[in-house]
Amino acid sequence: MLFEMCSCKKCGCFCKDDPEADQKFIKIAKAYEILKDPDTRKHYDIHGDSGSSDKKPQYHSYTYYRDQFGIYDDDPLIITLSRADYEVNVLDDTQAWFVNFYSPNCHMCHELAPTWRKLASEFEGVIRIAAVNCEDDWSLCYQLSIDSYPSLLYYEKEAHLYEGQRYRGPRTFDRLKDFILSKLPRIVKSVNPGDWENDESRKQQWLLFLCGDDSNCPEDETRLKMATILNGLMSVGVVTDRELCEKISSSYKSDPVVLWRGDETKSEGFVTVHTIKGSDSKEILDNVLSILPNPESLNEQQFQEIRSKLRVNADRPWLICFYLGTATDLNLQLKRLPSLVPTVNLGLVHCGKSSPLCSSLHISRYPSWGVLKVGGAFELHNGRDVLHELSGFARDSIKSTNLHALSPADFVDIMNEGGTWFIDWYAPWCPPCRKLMPELRRASQHFDSDSIQFGTIDCTVHRNLCSQHGIRSYPTTILYNGTQTQRFHGVPSEEGIVEFVSHLINPAVITLDDNSFVQLMRKPEDELWVVDFYAPWCGPCQRLGPEWRKLARQVSEFSEIKVAQVDCVANADLCSAQNIHSYPTIRLYPVGSKGLNTVAMYNGNRDLVSMKSWLLSLLPSPVISLNGDQFREQILNKRFVIPWLVEFYASWCGHCTHFEPEFRKVAHRLEGEVKTAKIDCGEERFFCGKLSVNSYPTVFLYLDSDEKYEISSQDPTEIVSRVKQLVNDKHYEHDEL
């Protein structure tokens, strides 16, 4: 209407004084004709004005980049997966997954897209049809050995990450459809008169195909799909005996599909038989679900009673839908959820009738979905209201009993009580926030509520609270411990969050300030101290933080090493006295010197491997360096009682550089049980070749000059375990002799 009014005003018949009125009218009318039609509008968004000169610069809208770089991003039936949620979704115990790994730059991927969409529509509810954009998630594709596009992986129910079966057939709709059907479990039961009369299952729910007269009975494909969709909700059977068909439903010839609803709580004869209309699986499913009862409706009192029971672990978790108006549009979705999340109760809350409850839970849109967890925590779903996302959210959320959706009142209580909380300030529309949420849920599962609790605050709902606490970007994650706060600047992943929280709960890094710096000043000669002087606002310092904490944990078994840090903003005078002028500054106070008498500066790469190698190289090492002649003399030509563990390496080998500090840890743990040595095969190439050592690093355990075992692992714990096992077995053999 606005376009029409505007075009009328610009028309030459109304604007006689404007000589360009006709041209303006033509432009507006053309724009109106293009924009009112979705197809021409999309063509314009992608290709611009096709009538314009090719010499003019080409500009593309956001829609162009969205459509070109994410083929399935907005498809309601195809689930776009990323590295953050791939494993959580695909390792599904309720449904199989068929995943398309593609690149937007791949011509064949675009050719497959219509077929893939048709496949998603055909098998909606039967299996999950998904896609991964390998341009956005190349690391996931590399991890799964995806080396060509499109690549299709099929995951059975309860499959593991690397158990996806690669589809190698023609990528036509019919062949893909046949492949999926061949993978579906054959769970349609054949019901005969003898079993039916004596079977206890008559008291249960059945979807029965009465095929005594085959002419009108749905085909095998439809039965197979229905059995897969309804698996866990009811049994699906086929009856071919005409007398039994007649007994179950006298109208079976015209209506061969019935829903048999027995009641196990009542007498055997108490059943209801519903005629189900429809010829394909979608029509049959809609009619079946329309007959099933709705989830339980809850009022405020019932909600609080359920929450009280959950606080004492006296009930199952609940997935609750908060809605206004009627729940008719939600019926089909609600009735399919029990088969997808069978361990969760389902409930409905009408926010018109229970407005105080919805207000207290800060329900701001309808329908909204939330989970009441064991322990009493409540969490709202911020994703799309589609079945697979809701079921995935419910399965993930009920495990995260330590994650709470917080209100301003909750936050005030947390500040007053002084407990330890890790809080994510987020906005539901923010893509990084959506990626962080599943990582936060999984991270919370590593800790019990006695040590730390996790919370989320929606800044679109609680704007004033976020503004008061200086939240200007999303997501912002902060750990609160009484009056102390510390922002999280690490990798926004499960591992990164767990590492950050673990350090703050049980710190491996010693924090020094004006008062405690005396510990370093009194350092004895047998200790090595390494100190990070940093500023919280410093970007390189923030990137160093996670690596520094990992370093402290990985060298914690060396009692002589102390890893420390000094906040130069909170302790400006101390840092000034130590002549700290840039951040981060890493200083080492070595073994053999007292206090601050000797200082070494670190100017290398600030990654874990580089810092750990440098640090351990400054300690006395039990690992002996041998050349070829020494190796022959000490190991090959000599009888010995204590075994030798030997690392064969090359100075140019990157893997050897990474492994060197790990081998030092092995030597430290096995000191006194075995002798440890290393030999540089870059210098002793021919000697190592005679010993058949052709790859580096290689580790051999020599129990004597003629008996050796290769240790294939490069994990220190596994190496130590394997060496001890071999040494003990050798001692046992000697004892037997």
Automatic annotation (TrEMBL):
Q: Which residues form the Thioredoxin domain?
A: 31-185, 384-476, 479-620, 622-728
Bilayer topology reads: Single-pass type IV membrane protein
- Compartments, record wording: Endoplasmic reticulum membrane
Superkingdom: Eukaryota
Q: Which GO terms describe its biological process?
A: autophagy; IRE1-mediated unfolded protein response
* Record-linked InterPro entries: DnaJ_domain, DnaJ_domain_CS, ER_disulfide_reductase, J_dom_sf, Thioredoxin-like_sf, Thioredoxin_CS, Thioredoxin_domain
**Major localization listed first in the record, in broad terms:** endoplasmic reticulum
Q: Name the keywords, alphabetized.
A: Autophagy
Known role: Plays an important role in regulating the size of autophagosomes during the formation process.
Protein name as catalogued? DnaJ homolog subfamily C member 10
- Identify the species of origin: Tenebrio molitor
